[in-house]
Amino acid sequence: MRTLLRFAGSAAPLPAVTAGLVAVLVGVTSSAAIVFTAAEAAGADAGQIASWMLALGVGMAVTCVGLSLRYRAPVVTAWSTPGAALLAVGLDGVTMAQAVGAFVFSAALITLSGVTGWFEKVMDRIPVPLAAGLLAGVLLQFGIGLFTSMQGDPAVVAAMFAVYLAARRWSPRYAVPAALVAGGAVAALTGSLDLSGVTPRPAVPVLVVPEFSWQVLVSVGVPLFVVTMASQNLPGVAVLRNDGYRVPVSPLIGWTGATNLVLAPFGCFGMNLAAITAAICTGPQAHPDPRRRYLAGVWAGVFYLVVGVFGATVATLLTALPPALIAAIAGLGLLGTIGGSLASALTDARSREAALVTFLATASGITLLGIGSAFWGLVAGALTWAVTVRRGTGGEAGPA
User: Fold this and answer.
1) Alpha-helical runs (H) found in the chain
2) Where are the transmembrane segments (predicted)?
3) Is 371 helix (H, G, I), strand (E, B) or coil?
4) Hey, what long-range contacts does 195-199 have (CB within 8 A, 24 or more apart)?
């Protein structure tokens, strides 16, 4: 029995399991509605929508577990949220078969990017302060959401914050799990958490044979590839590197693309490295030992598999969880990562201005040409870096 308990404690440490659960909870609740909207835009019925969730869940489970174990790093994948938003608008008038053809085309391009290694070469040229500023900008809204969520449900969020602070004082490792339990308890007591209408139902895979229309490939497939790489994979790599995980990028991109390619006919429209949810699993809240944080990625995969298998119940579950609880636990779970990213971005005076521009542009949420602010923040920061740091003016102070 002692051997069994030691094995359970080693394979499933509470902080890692909780980090994986919170990552999946945040990922699903923050963007599942967009996925449903995208599926409906393509004319998907209830069975096909459930199949989309099953394919995405299985794909993320396979890549999270497989890549985390392979590289002993917390590699967390996710569906492409900006890609789903793009599809929700771009699939109007497109048949399901044509939409799947675009998914296959985009996945093939992502796989090619990983196999050829060009994406990793681009990432290797990004200065560390800019990558840190990019990550801080991506995560800023979640940190702010911790406090803005108090307007919606002050009792739940205040209780979570109080328990978090108390746990940080006496048991820092369990601060986030304790806050999650407290929030759930208060939500149940106040009536804002109601699970009575949630009935578990397994999803069934529905195969759609792809149809390749060049108009749809150009108007949907190419933009889906661009936003997935620029708005998702780019900050995803930055998250891993910011926390010291020098995992080879090309295999990560290649395997996520290949998995996406296989599952595309079942509704897996876009898979990529996670950024926001990955940060929950790469920081100290996931495990005090960085070498053991890969278990958070493994458990995220396990929970994603559960989400996929019961994809038909996700919609009803979303309505049962108080939005304030999700916003608060995400903010609490990311406090350490946000602080560390800002410190890393602003430490060097020579690169401080370029890192600050990256942070502000990314945090602005601007979208141009269908590409999100993570890409444009990096562009603005790189331009500032090239003009100031490379020319030796980055360390000069302006007038007081």
Assistant:
1) 2-11, 14-41, 46-71, 81-90, 96-116, 118-124, 128-148, 154-170, 175-190, 214-216, 222-228, 234-242, 249-263, 276-282, 294-309, 314-320, 323-346, 352-363, 373-388
2) 12-37, 49-69, 100-119, 126-144, 174-192, 212-231, 294-318, 324-347, 354-379
3) strand
4) 195/317, 195/320, 197/316, 197/319, 197/320, 198/313, 198/316, 198/317, 198/320, 199/313, 199/316
Distance CA(203)–CA(49), nearest Å, equals: 9
CA–CA separation, 199 vs 317, rounded Å? 9
What digits encode the pLDDT tens for the residues 285-319? 888 888 999 999 999 999 999 999 987 787 666 66
229-232, Cβ contacts within 8 angstroms, sequence gap of 24 or more: 229/110, 229/113, 229/119, 229/272, 230/371, 230/372, 230/374, 230/375, 231/80, 231/82, 231/371, 231/372, 231/374, 231/375, 232/78, 232/80, 232/81, 232/82, 232/83, 232/272, 232/273, 232/274, 232/275, 232/374
What is the count of structural domains for the chain? 1
Q: Coil, helix or strand for 92?
A: coil
Rounded CA gap, 63 and 3, in Å? 29
Could you report the per-residue pLDDT of 154-165, keeping only the tens digit for each? 888 999 999 999
Q: Say if 203 falls within a structural domain.
A: yes
Exposed e or buried b per residue across 153-163, where buried means at least 16 C-beta atoms within 10 angstroms of its C-beta: beebbebbbeb
Query: 273: which strand partners?
Result: 77
Q: What is the pLDDT of residue 96?
A: 92
Q: Which burial class, exposed, middle or buried, applies to 117 when counting CB atoms under 10 A from its CB (0-12, 13-18, 19+)?
A: middle
In the 8-state DSSP scheme, what is residue 288?
S
Average pLDDT of the chain, as a whole number = 83
Residue 371 phi, psi (nearest 5): -110, 135
Is 216 domain-assigned? yes
Residue 377 belongs to a domain: no
Report the candidate in 352, 297, 359 with the shortest Cα–Cα distance to residue 141.
359
How many C-beta atoms surround the C-beta of residue 135 within 10 A? 34
pLDDT over 60 (residue 14):
yes
Q: Is residue 5 part of a domain?
A: no
Task: Determine the 3-state secondary structure of 117 from DSSP.
Answer: coil
